[in-house]
Amino acid sequence: METTHCTVDGWVDAIPAPGPHGTAMFDLTVRPVGADTLPEDAPDTVVSCTGAAGGIAHELLTCIQPGDLLRVTGTLEQPQTPDGRARLTVDALEVLDTAPMLVLSDMVIDRYGDYCVIFDADTDAVPVFTARGKWVGLADNPDAITTLIDIHERVHGGDA
Questions:
Q1: What is the predicted pLDDT for the residue at 36?
Q2: Per-residue pLDDT tens digits for 101-124
Q3: How many CB atoms lie within 10 A of CB 148?
Q4: How far apart are CA 153 and CA 108, in angstroms?
């Protein structure tokens, strides 16, 4: 397996997700070098990234949004097959530019400290998860979210 230490600039595709062992996973869309001289339909490269070192996972899970422009440095593993994705283990992360605020009409994911909630326009019930993706419960309505989080913290000792 061929690996290279490198720095890559690219855009975050989707909300970073909790990964195993305290990591965070995300896809980075990278424009080809010299993209200004390439045809408009030249494909971008999608690099699957994992971050854990030095608080990177926390930064990814709490601050990074889709559309943010990042500079990541780490160890790049080339794909095993021609149709596979490159994988980058991130050692350093820098936010170069933030995405404009998006207006979502049907569903919104929001954070309550170490918790994530999903607001859906079609229902009052609000699913609540820890930032690491562990199910906490279903709040009957937005006003019941803090009560559900308080109960979870009392039962689990604040282990979000």
A1: 67
A2: 655 557 788 888 888 998 888 888
A3: 19
A4: 24
Nearest 5 degrees, angle CA 101-CA 105-CA 110? 60
Task: Note the pLDDT of residue 73.
Answer: 93
Q: Is residue 47 within 8 Å of 10, Cβ to Cβ? A: yes
Count of alpha carbons within 13 angstroms of residue 43, beta-carbon side? 3
pLDDT on residue 78: 81
Sign of CA dihedral 36, 37, 40, 43: negative
DSSP 19-62: -GGG-EEEEEEEPPTTGGGS-TTPPPEEEEEEE-GGGHHHHHHH
How distant is the alpha carbon of residue 138 from its chain centre? 23
Dist CA 128 CA 110 (whole Å): 10
- Calpha distance 8→78 (Å, rounded): 14
Q: What is the pLDDT of residue 35?
A: 59
Place of tokens 């689990």: 156
Residue ranges of the chain with per-residue pLDDT less than 50: none
Residue type, 48: S
Task: Return the number of other C-beta atoms located less than 10 Å from residue 145's C-beta.
Answer: 20
Provide the pLDDT for residue 80.
Answer: 78
